[in-house]
Write a structure and sequence with these properties.
This protein starts with a helix and ends with a strand. A seven-stranded parallel sheet has the order 5-4-3-2-1-9-8. The protein has 13 helices and 16 strands. It is about 30% helix and about 20% strand. It folds into two domains: about 5-315, Alpha-Beta Barrel (TIM Barrel); about 330-420, Immunoglobulin-like, CATH 2.60.40. The protein has helices spanning about 5-10, 20-25, 30, 35-45, 55-65, 90-95, 100-110, 140-145, 150-165, 195, 200-210, 265-280, 300-315; strands at about 10-15, 70-75, 115-120, 175-180, 215, 235-240, 240, 245-250, 280-290, 330-335, 340-345, 350-355, 360-365, 375-380, 400, 415-420. With about 425 residues, it is an alpha/beta fold. The structure holds alpha-D-glucopyranose. Alpha-D-glucopyranose binds near residues 16, 28, 179, 248 and 255.
Length: about 425
């Protein structure tokens, strides 16, 4: 069961950090603005992550209740955050630090699982052909640009860098490859699994790190799937079998530090997204984009602190929990861990919440945040709605009685102990 730790953890931190963090206007800036290597070079020359503190990052993740962290070892820009022997477009050349080493050591010190994100795209490498996704796609003569480029050499480089990452840093728990776009567009080619030698790359992962989980973005199936910036609406299945999945989500729509972007998601939405994922047997990987100096932006710190406060009281409804085989009431979603069923109340009803099919199945009900007992009753289906009598609920409904005042937590959770 390679993915057991992953299924249990449910909540992880994504960290996008690179030269684009200093550009501070989206990690795709080079592509969006069609910057040349020379244009982009200034971010390399001035790369100065003096506030990149891997220990602080690991502690922040742990405080937020996350079980693992995933760092961009290299994003599409091609800049390596580790001491690669295969290029000098790396953090050791730029600032004398192997940030991947610092990161791995810090995570292990906090007992967190270690994840890498690695882009198979590389806009810096001279052998990576210009495709419709490339910053140079709009140049007058793309064919001429591609004339000397040799994807065989690029593939050797890609595999070589992955080998470095999987041999130089001890056991790695998780690898998020990004990404494959096999279709053509605007008269230009995309890149598919064969461009990466996806089979060979996955085989390399299996041989070097047999316990490591690998995602499916090489364009071939592997261990888990990664819905990006949206929430599924039911547990994900393929050919009648459940898929292991993880929704990756941003704080504000960008992955890299995007200074002027104010689309920050409110904390209550982020917490709902987390429990919504767990209710469908999925994980949530929540991203932060450290700023140009490597510090976690204050707005992200504040959100993580608030999530952490909630997680401290509600951890049991998330970590080790998953989908429950009951239809939830209209006010929220269920998660389940062993004999505990958790009702996450997205909206706060007046006085009661009615739980279909749970009459006789619950021995105890309480709020999770303060452990306070909640009265329950079984509805009488023969009752009819009358002046001051609530409408009779269907046979088998369990009614939980609630205070009028909504508890002062980001998301109230009712814990129901199930009879065996
Ligand atoms: C993408 C984007 C990207 C981001 C990633 C995270 O496909 O290219 O910038 O790193 O997904 O899932």
């Amino acid at each position: 069961m390679r993915q057991q730790w992953f299924d249990e953890a449910r909540f992880g931190m994504f960290v996008h950090f690179g030269l684009y963090s200093a550009a501070a206007r989206h990690e795709w800036v080079q592509n969006y603005e069609r910057l040349t290597d020379e244009d982009y070079r200034q971010y390399f020359e001035h790369f100065d992550p003096d506030r990149f503190d891997a220990g602080a990052l690991a502690r922040q993740a742990k405080r937020a209740g996350m079980g693992y962290v995933v760092l961009t070892t290299k994003h599409h820009e091609g800049f390596a955050l580790w001491d690669t022997a295969l290029s000098d477009f790396d953090s050791v050349t730029a600032c004398g630090r192997d940030l991947v080493r610092e990161y791995v050591d810090a995570l292990r010190a906090e007992g967190l699982r270690v994840g890498f994100y690695h882009s198979v795209i590389d806009w810096h490498h001279p052998d990576f052909t210009v495709d419709w996704n490339h910053p140079r796609r709009g140049d007058a003569d793309v064919a001429a640009l591609n004339a000397g480029r040799d994807m065989d050499r690029y593939r050797a480089f890609l595999h070589g860098q992955v080998r470095e990452l999987l041999t130089g840093y001890g056991p790695i728990d998780y690898l998020f490859f990004d990404f494959t776009y096999p279709h053509d567009r605007d008269g230009l080619a995309g890149k598919g699994p064969e461009d990466w030698d996806a089979e060979g790359l996955l085989a390399l992962c299996r041989s070097l790190q047999p316990q490591m989980l690998v995602n499916d973005r090489l364009g071939i199936p592997a261990d888990f799937v990664t819905p990006e910036q949206y929430q599924p609406t039911s547990p994900l299945m393929r050919d009648g079998r459940p898929l292991v999945w993880e929704a990756c989500q941003t704080m504000n729509g960008a992955w890299g530090y995007d200074r002027d972007n104010d689309d920050q998601k409110p904390v209550d939405l982020l917490v709902r997204m987390l429990v919504d994922s767990v209710s469908m047997d999925g994980n949530m990987l929540l991203n932060i984009g450290p700023d140009g100096r490597g510090a976690i932006a204050p707005r992200d710190c504040a959100a993580l602190d608030e999530i952490g406060e909630w997680m401290q009281l509600h951890r049991d409804a998330v970590v080790g929990a998953g989908h429950a085989p009951f239809a939830p009431p209209r006010e929220g979603v269920y998660t389940q861990r062993g004999d505990r069923l958790y009702l996450h109340l997205f909206t706060w009803p007046l006085g009661f919440v009615h739980l279909a099919g749970l009459a006789g199945k619950v021995t105890y009900a309480r709020f999770l945040h303060d452990g306070s007992w909640l009265r329950t009753s079984v509805a009488d289906p023969d009752q009819v709605a009358d002046l001051m009598t609530p409408e009779g609920e269907p046979e088998g409904t369990l009614t939980v009685h609630l205070p009028v005042a909504r508890p002062d937590v980001v998301l109230p959770v009712i814990e129901l102990t199930l009879a065996d």
